[in-house]
Amino acid sequence: MTKLYDRSKYSTMVVYAVDVGGSTLKHGDVAGATYAVSSNCVRVNAKQHTAQIRRPIERGYVVNWTLQGDIWQEALAVDPDATLLLTTPVFTPEKLLHTQDEVVFEEFHMAGMANVIPQAMVPLTLSSPSPVHVVVDVGFSATHIVPWIDGSFMHVLRVGVECIAVPEVLFHPSDIGIDQDGIAGGIADAIAACPPFVQGQMYQHIVVTGGSSKFPHFIDRLRVDLRPLVPAEYALHVTLHDEYSRVLFTVVLYVGI
């Protein structure tokens, strides 16, 4: 369960937040409540008519921390005395977390660091009093479907792990030969893996975020595809939420730094 901390105890602490996305970095001093957006990639072998792009993230996880560190050096203006608030996906392998710590403390010499699960930012700002939500984060290189019960995630599915440009494929990956459920099927599977007594509430509190959710009519299409998969006795409510990077700069006190 997250904790709420007294602001006065941390009024002098400088906190720099970085939301590490597959396409972009959102970063800035949380005291300013604004952030900058930088591309999370580098161009290599640039020629007159062609260029190759290298990205440090695959399937939602930073797998090349050497490259990520180089991008940070160019994009970020971080005070070493600051504490870093860094988004980290659920179930990040320990080896990647260890490498992350080395970069943060040995290369950037930060005073401290706190990791937050990106999808956990969304329920903290919802006006709904429900303790149950399903957060669908439709990102650049992966989609995470995370059911939350009383502040704890119950089950996680990743879908849409291929970098694709056609929104239709997010709903029917089989169209390009990917043998997995689309977003609607992934949501139904994630909710089915949760205790039966909360499943009805989850279908009423589905919150969608992430850059790829901004495709025109995305939410309408998701509702249409999801409704046949929902038991008839359950109501269905799907809402679009701001990207959690916006939320990140307003909920620092919840993460205990």
UniProtKB/TrEMBL annotation:
Coiled coil regions, renumbered to chain: none
Check the record and name the InterPro entries matching this protein. Actin (IPR004000), ATPase_NBD (IPR043129)
Question: Looking at the record's lineage, which domain of life comes first?
Answer: Eukaryota
Catalysis performed (reactions): ATP + H2O = ADP + phosphate + H(+)
SMART domains, alphabetized: ACTIN (SM00268)
| PANTHER family reported for this sequence | ACTIN (PTHR11937)
Record family assignment: Belongs to the actin family.
Q: What is this protein called?
A: Uncharacterized protein
**Taxonomic lineage per UniProt?**
Eukaryota, Sar, Stramenopiles, Oomycota, Saprolegniomycetes
